[in-house]
Amino acid sequence: MNMEQKSIISSEIDENLALEVLKQIPTPVMVVAHDFKIIFMNQAGCAFLGKTFDEIKGSYCYSIFNSRHCQTPECRMKKVMEGGEVSTARNEVKINDKTLYIEYTVAPLKDDNGNIIGGLEYIIDITDRVRQEQKLREQSRIIMEISTPAIKLWDRIVVLPVVGVVDSMRAQQIMDTMLKQIALNSSKVIILDIQGVAAVDTAVANHLIKIAKATKLMGCRCIISGISPAVAQTLVQLGIDLGEINTNSTLEDALSDAFALLKFEVVKKQ
């Protein structure tokens, strides 16, 4: 056996070994030709799809996966075969009428001359992870709503007690809650009680000013109550001007101001 024959045999062994490795990888691996027809799918991929390779072979990948990226500019396989680099993305697929979430990585498949002749893709099923993330986001949203309840205190007067830390996300949630209450109840005065806010600094003050301005644009006045001596000193030391926003130290005083703004009069019953 000459050297050339040995080289051919060695090359065939390497190719067979590589194919066996791809077949046994525990995550789905797929190879498609330049026309998007499937030319290889490993055992894990067939199990993921619930089909045999004979049922899959020669089919267009987009007809098998029916994903959110298929046949759109977002398709990473399309980008790779047009000369793009290795790419990873999240995607949503429809398998047997079930919606699954995947993370897929695509690399170009090249011939000996470096020409792109197809693409290789491996897939990780992240359905459980995505659903857990969705659950956590929903729980976070519910906690935020519970921690910022809008209470109708009087006719056209709503109080919104704020407890905890006010960051940009929380401020946006407070603003959304206030504006919805104004539209829902035709509110004319919103009392924003910040007695339970952990700390008031420049960022928090700016959030409060934005919230008050948004309220005013909807024809409603915002009164901030719960200004403690420490908060008052902090605002002065930071040089923060709350402008025309009404402020009070207590909720009781804020309610009295709200009555005055609406020209309500409390009369003691004889």
Write a structural description:
The protein is α/β, with parallel strands linked by helices and 270 residues long. It folds into two domains: 3-131, PAS domain (Beta-Lactamase); 143-261, STAS domain (Transcription Regulator spoIIAA), CATH 3.30.750.24. The chain has ten helices and ten strands. It has helices at residues 3-24, 43-49, 53-56, 61-65, 76-81, 127-147, 168-185, 202-217, 229-237, 251-261; strands at residues 29-33, 38-41, 87-95, 98-110, 116-125, 151-154, 157-164, 189-197, 221-225, 246-247. A five-stranded antiparallel sheet has the order 2-1-5-4-3, with helices on both faces. Strands 6-7-8-9-10 form a five-stranded mixed sheet, sandwiched between helices. It is elongated and about 95 Å long.
- The DSSP helix count reads 10
Low-confidence stretches: 1-14
Largest sheet: 5 strands, antiparallel
Averaged pLDDT, please?
Answer: 83
Number of domains: 2
Give the end-to-end Cα distance, rounded to a whole number of Å.
120 Å
Fraction of residues in helices?
40-55%
CATH topology of the largest domain: Beta-Lactamase
- What fraction of residues sit in β-strands? 25-35%
Morphology call = elongated
Return the structural class: alpha/beta
CATH architecture of the largest domain: 2-Layer Sandwich
Largest sheet strand order: 2-1-5-4-3
Radius of gyration: 32 Å
Let me know the number of strands: 10
CATH class of the largest domain: Alpha Beta
CATH superfamily of the largest domain: PAS domain
Element order: H for helix, E for strand: HEEHHHHEEEHEEHEHEHEH
List the helices and strands and how they pair.
Blueprint: H1 3-24, E1 29-33, E2 38-41, H2 43-49, H3 53-56, H4 61-65, H5 76-81, E3 87-95, E4 98-110, E5 116-125, H6 127-147, E6 151-154, E7 157-164, H7 168-185, E8 189-197, H8 202-217, E9 221-225, H9 229-237, E10 246-247, H10 251-261
Parallel strand pairs: 7-8, 8-9, 9-10
Antiparallel strand pairs: 1-2, 1-5, 3-4, 4-5, 6-7
